[in-house]
Amino acid sequence: MNLIVGLGNPVPKYENTRHNIGFQAVRKLAEKHNFKARKRDEAMVAEDRIKGYPAAIAQPLTLMNRSGRAVSWLVDEYSAKPRDLLVIHDDLDLEMGRIRLKYGGSSGGHNGIKSIIKALDTPEFNRLRLGIGRPPPGVRASDYVLDKFSSEEKLEVIEPALARAVEAVELWLEEDLDAAMNRFN
């Protein structure tokens, strides 16, 4: 079973913030493939097939900094191996709207990824990073990630990026990470 996890904060006030772009991506994927989510332990999970491949799409119900607890449970529940897990998250160091796939590596300062690495006791898993850009001068990163995208950013940059992210996930499922990296990185 392939496991696709979007990171975010499950608190209503953080809905549609930059930090929750991972949630937005898995919702787009679920909508496109008519997945219906239900609460399971510490995550909202939807299971079905994407382009013929079995997949579970999940949103942790833990706060971002505790994502590892939910992801660890999901990995155990679905007997997922690192190559079967794809975590989708925001990235301050990528230009807004850019996407990048990678396998392994450090957390890059992302506390959700840091929590997952600690819980799984390995950095070796697939990641799809969605660029949210750096904050403007004088704005703290912690405030910036919890801001919502402007209407213009959402329409012109974020919606197309989410569509590309969905395509990247589909290609990862159909072929592999290298194919998705070659096309989208």
From TrEMBL:
Belongs to the PTH family. It comes from Halarsenatibacter silvermanii. It catalyses: an N-acyl-L-alpha-aminoacyl-tRNA + H2O = an N-acyl-L-amino acid + a tRNA + H(+). The active site is at residue 19. InterPro entries: Pept_tRNA_hydro, Pept_tRNA_hydro_CS, Pept_tRNA_hydro_sf. PANTHER family: PEPTIDYL-TRNA HYDROLASE. Monomer. One of its GO terms (cellular component) is cytoplasm. The record marks 90 as: Stabilizes the basic form of H active site to accept a proton. TRNA binds at residues 14, 65, 111. Keywords: Cytoplasm, Hydrolase, RNA-binding, tRNA-binding. CDD domains: PTH (cd00462). This is Peptidyl-tRNA hydrolase. It is found in: Cytoplasm. Hydrolyzes ribosome-free peptidyl-tRNAs (with 1 or more amino acids incorporated), which drop off the ribosome during protein synthesis, or as a result of ribosome stalling. One of its GO terms (molecular function) is peptidyl-tRNA hydrolase activity. The keyword Cytoplasm applies. GO terms for biological process: protein quality control for misfolded or incompletely synthesized proteins; rescue of stalled ribosome. The record marks 9 as: Discriminates between blocked and unblocked aminoacyl-tRNA. Its EC number is 3.1.1.29.
